[in-house]
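User: My collaborator and I are trying to settle a disagreement about how two of our proteins should look. Neither of us wants to argue from intuition anymore, so we agreed to look at predicted structures for both before our next call. Could you fold the first one, then the second, and keep them clearly separated?

Assistant: That sounds like a sensible way to settle it. I'll keep them separate. The first protein:
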Amino acid sequence: MNTEHSWTTTPVTARLLRGALDVEHTDRGVLPHRLPATARRQIPDAQLAMAQSQPSGVRLAFRTGATTVELDVIATKRVYPGTPPRPDGVYELLVDGRLTGRAVAPDGDVLTVDLATGAGHTRPGPVRTLRFTGLPAHDKDVEIWLPHDEATRLVALRTDAPVHVPPPGGRKVWLHHGSSISHGSNAATPTGTWPARAAALGGVELVNLGFSGSALLDPFTARAMRDCPADLISVKIGINLVNLDLMRSRAFGPAVDGFLDTLREGHPDTPLLVVSPIHCPIHENTPGPSAPDPGALREGRLRFVAAGDPAETTAGKLTLGTIREELARIVGRRAATDPHLHHLNGLDLYGAADHAELPLPDALHPDAATHRLIGERFARLAFADGGPLAVGTA
């Protein structure tokens, strides 16, 4: 730490965090969570436990006249043996909504995960200091967006001027739930995930409950959303149910109804948008599960293939095509008595023609350019005047 400044150290508390549903105080710093403790106690697998601790959409927010900001963090670096190293998570600093600086923590705790079994173990690592300099000297709103896919413990916040909790900004809160695509997989930066891009364009406050591998209609996720204050809600359903081969068509419809029923218990009149899957060729007509392509792994690449058989759809196995049809039917039926419920076909966000121009690099997840495309289209289709989540509808 540079000692030329007169530093103000501000405790990191929930009052300074946006986008987190819970904050855990540990002996190694503050760990934001995107599911509350009641839901975390019911999580049945390590994948979701890890995903909800990765702070996609979570940011520190404060008002200050500081020209220099330091943040001490312990990042969690993930290692998947046999696959290419993952890029370091990016921290982005915004001043009055404009990107001003980026930083990375080059090391930290190391979580090694076996792709075949899902088992993992963690090796503790060091605290690293992120430093942002050259900020304008006047009072301003500062946000530090945490890495969307790298769990981060916040150890200390230092500034060369006092920090204040910003007053309410008056923007509507958008609560979104989805899969790894909503979480931000393969996006380059935390403000570059499609939900973050859409929120910026729509002028709304994002609470992102996109969980890699875990948009599975879990009742505890529905209850967490039910109990979370929100002015606008969307749920993106489909790809994880297919690539985990989690359920058959008989269970799917009632599970969707149950999830939506729970949301309506807490948000009876809130604009609610159900979004079906974007285009994904390997699962359009072929059920899951998805599996890493052994040939690609031998070449040091991660790419996915569909391991199901199209003939199995007659036995009720789900594909993206069947899920889109069923979601449109369910929303149409419910909308007859729920005028605030809406449907968006995921192919309007990213369809076959888009795939021809911007293919999914690993056959499942969009790249940074495609995240930008999806975010811009969602903002236009959902948040613009006349859209189902237009701010005036809240």
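The second protein, kept apart from the first:
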Amino acid sequence: MRYRLKTAFCIAASFGFLLAASGEASRFVSRVSDDELKTDTVSDKKVAEDAPANENSIIDEVVWVVGDEAILKSDVEAMRIQGEMEGMKWNGDPDCIIPEQLAVQKLFLHQAALDSIEVTESDVSQSVDQQINYWISNAGSREKLEEWKKMTVKQMKESLRDDFRNHQLIEKMKSNLVKDIKVSPADVRRYFEKMPQDSLPLIPTEVEVEIITQAPRIAPEEINRIKNELRDYTERVTKGETSFAALARLYSEDPGTARQGGEFDDYVGRGMLDPAFASVAFNLTDPKKISKIVESEYGYHIIQLIDKRGDKIKVRHILRVPRVSPEALEKAENRLDSIADDIRANKFTFEAAASYLSDDKDTKNNNGLMANQSEDGFTSKFRMRDLPTEIARVVDTLKVGEISKSFRMVNSKGKTVCVIAKLVNRIDAHRATITEDFQAMKAIVQSKRRADFLKDWVQKKIKTTYIRINDKYKNCNFEYEGWVK
């Protein structure tokens, strides 16, 4: 079972994040003196005493110092390699761009420390898990990812933790700096009023969609089969015939933990788990005992406590997922098609049917209307790329007001459900107008003002921060002035 995340998005490693990372090398050396910068090397003292300095005795090279934080040559190389792996195109010399961006990140981290900005371990863990899950999805499996990265998932998580913490600190610091920057309607009008028509932002096609879902009913016999298997596992462990971990490797259907004997990589809090799972897991006190069978949104589990640490626990579990029969899927599809026919015959509305008949908790109380979460909150408008793939494919063929035939999709819990969709509205791609697209235009102006403010902040921060850079970087064409003093 994957942790139940509070946000339903997966993050890719963006350039901004890559530059927030300082790498293992920067953790090796965090403070340097003027003398160390002048030699531009960090050397093993014992080797230096025993033998003359040579290339093999140089562990790393200090290329910049910002405040009392070092930027190493290995940091720059690591960011260059990662950027190339992510398909990053450098707009200039990466040997100049990368260290400058690393230096900017350190300015924000320094200010975050001064302002006592903090992030929670829970938030860091969630972000790390999302990144790992994204990589697993791209690689095809946990095993393929480990083969490609040449390290275990646990090692990946440990290597990412500090970088993600720094990234979150930087973003929180930036948000704190720009929190009071507001934009009025008059500001938006002034910004765009003299802009040529063909220079106005292009708003892509957006749609509003309502859905009704039906989860295929699982036969009682299938549920009993799963429960009997879990009871058998419990009995075998209790009798000492085998270990919980061995059974998890053989039978658990959670690909994220089965290979590790059902064990979660980290200590987790209640908020990171399915509520039903958490309720039972946090009541366990004896590591030798196995929990009762727990039904969650993912399937059925048995749980074994490993350890408790404050308000977090570490557990292992076995997940079994009941199979949905083809007959049950067909029955759910037929039921939805019948509902759609009744709606078309004006027996009741789509919205009323969604409120009373839909199984989708996220849309049921909103008359079936899907909600899109953005930085500015929730909106009913979706770009096609932001819709689930199966829904986007169907909606693209509908006319406004039309209801689809039933189709199948995998929901956010990994379960196959049957769906009918109604296209409520379609706004074709167009140049932005104040009357129709004020929020989008406001966001552009606000984003520009915040970016300008942060750029000015960095420029001022450079002037009041101790900075030393290696001579070979002094001829770089930097974005900010004042690095060379």
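Some points you might bring to the call about the second protein. Residues 434-463 form the longest helix (30 residues). Confidence is low (pLDDT under 50) at residues 1-57.
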